[in-house]
Amino acid sequence: MELSFKHQVGLVCVILLFPALCSCHEYVTNSRASYYNTPDGLGNPRGACGFGEYGRTMNNGSVAAVSGLWRNGAGCGACYQVWCKIPEYCNGKGVHVVATDYGAGDNTDFIMSKRGFYGLGRNAGASKELFKRGVVDIAFKRVPCRYTDSIKLHVQESSKNPGYFAVLILNADDITAVQMWLKRQQRWEPLRRVYGAVFDFANPPTGEILMRFQVGYKYWLLPKIAIPANWKPGATYDTKLHPY
Ligand SMILES: *[C@@H]1O[C@H](CO)[C@@H](O)[C@H](O)[C@H]1NC(C)=O
């Protein structure tokens, strides 16, 4: 099909604007991808999402730093199918990566862990060739995540009970807001996004902490289980809530 210039411009607008407005999974975008080095080829445990050591091995280490898809941290934990475009080297189905970090490169949308970047190639030799190039043309689309685990809440080591509550949200993506139930006031109060997937709240109420999570500005997930009153910095609590 021949598209007129006007139609092409319209199409470009739709492709550029829609991923930000909806979590539609069918839009394919052309871009570029590169990779970063870690000693083990897995994720960067200091990634900007705040996933820490967990972020190293998420999705079997096939992870990426993203730039335009970062969305002030709401892009943390989001999943993408990424494939490259050199027929002799690139495999057709590409690789599934999870965003765990922020990273802007030379017009790249993804700076992948080596494990992830390796997955673009048809075979070991082809992947080696892709590594040599350093940056490759790709296409990508947002896809549903494959978290098999429920959403977990890791109380950050910087927290103090009572007085200060900071929490990392794991196994979720597209978290656009988090709120805490204030029992005495009988209302929800927003937490502040500190960075990535880490949110905090000064002077949290004593007693158990019940939070809810907004997904993609669209709906709220309400865990069945609250964080117990004796919560401890460094502990991880299971919400038993499965987002999929
Ligand atoms: C994780 O990646 C390694 C290296 O590519 C692979 O050998 C292993 O089978 C993968 N594990 C899973 C569970 O996919």
From TrEMBL:
The keyword Signal applies. Keywords: Signal. One of its GO terms (cellular component) is extracellular region. The keyword Lipid metabolism does not apply. It comes from Cajanus cajan. Residues 1-24 form the signal peptide. This is Expansin-like B1. It comes from the Eukaryota. Belongs to the expansin family. It holds the Pfam family DPBB_1.
